[in-house]
Amino acid sequence: MHWFARFVVACTVVLVLAGSLVTSTDSGLAVPDWPTTYGWNMFTFPPSMWVGGIFYEHGHRLIASTVGFLTIVLAAWLWIAEPRIWLKRLGVMALAAVILQGLLGGLTVMYFLPAPVSTAHAGLAEIFFCLTVAIALFTSPGWLAGGTQGAGSAVVAVVDDAMLRKVATTTTVLVYVQILLGATMRHTEAGLAIPDFPLMFGGLLPDHWDPKIAIHFSHRLGAMVVSLAALATAGHIWWHYSHLRALTRPATLLAALIALQVTLGAFTVLSGLHVAINSAHVVCGALVLTTSLVITLRSWRIRFADADTAIAGASTGPALRSAELGRRPGPFGPGAGVHDPTGASR
């Protein structure tokens, strides 16, 4: 199930890319009807007619339908085979999200791309992506074991760090808000409202304002806030948990993605909204969000039901219970950061 969930995640990345290409190429109305395609059943529309913007919009619909089908399979599999009730419900939530996402996609076409509906469509896409990533994480062997196993090191059960939970959760929320600002900017055609970078109309602040400039400026300001929050999360992990690969790897990835995202944002403006750069910027933003989400969920692992650990059972056994790794002294005292699933603090 875990590998199938990962496959759904990978397909969702492709779907996010396809959706970004539709917007970047202004192909949202290349197919003016829905759910049909120029009167054809979506799945029988002739490939010979996939030309121009039709290729992007129709391709997006087919990929979305594929992801929807895979989500049905995933939700059913979880409901049948997964013992954790809350995870069964998460699968149903993912299925409901992808269905609603399809309906919002149809409304964007039927009502000629209204900005609020298009932005909601983009925002829900990110929520669905987060749900698939969460399901893949919750079904992973490392999560079931209560921690992670690094090369040549003991198994660490759970990190208990209130500060990490706060900063990671805040970062994830800020990234999502930033994505909504970016979606608003894209769907209100404010991407070049401030046409220069890093300055704004040649200065540190815009010398005049209108709604589009305000949206664009908010997105740039949000990029600074998100970057600082992400670096705070990564820095906390590098300082306190340098021995825990389950945290250091996503922290390093988060820092790298943030650097790439800022670079792509700059070149999106400087290139005049180049299609490839603009679309890569959207996909990278989604990866920033889900990477931050993984860190957040792992920081909250100790607060999940003890039944999660019990599922691992004999497969984790003595090795897990013999964990001896701690964290560097911090604001919560020596060794406050690591617990084992039996409830004994390390």
What key phrases describe this protein's structure?
disordered C terminus; 4 strands; mainly alpha; 346 residues; flat; two-stranded antiparallel ribbon
Structure, described:
The chain is mainly alpha-helical and 346 residues long. 65% of the residues lie in helices and 2% in strands. The chain has eleven helices and four strands, in the order αααααβββααααααβ. It has helices spanning 2-24, 53-81, 85-110, 115-138, 141-145, 162-187, 211-240, 245-270, 275-299, 307-312, 317-321, and strands spanning 148-149, 155-156, 158-159, 338-339. Strands 1-2 form a two-stranded antiparallel sheet. The protein has a two-stranded antiparallel ribbon with strand order 3-4. Helix 1 runs antiparallel to helix 4 (115-138) and helix 6 (162-187) runs antiparallel to helix 7. The longest helix has 30 residues, at 211-240. The chain is flat and about 50 Å long. The two termini are 32 Å apart. Mean pLDDT is 87; it is low at 148-157, 312-336 and 339-346.
Provide a concise account of the structure shown.
The protein is built from eleven helices and four strands.
Give the secondary structure arrangement, pairings included.
Layout: H1 2-24, H2 53-81, H3 85-110, H4 115-138, H5 141-145, E1 148-149, E2 155-156, E3 158-159, H6 162-187, H7 211-240, H8 245-270, H9 275-299, H10 307-312, H11 317-321, E4 338-339
Antiparallel strand pairs: 1-2, 3-4
Helix pairs in contact: 1-2, 1-4, 1-9, 2-3, 3-4, 4-6, 4-9, 6-7, 6-9, 7-8, 8-9
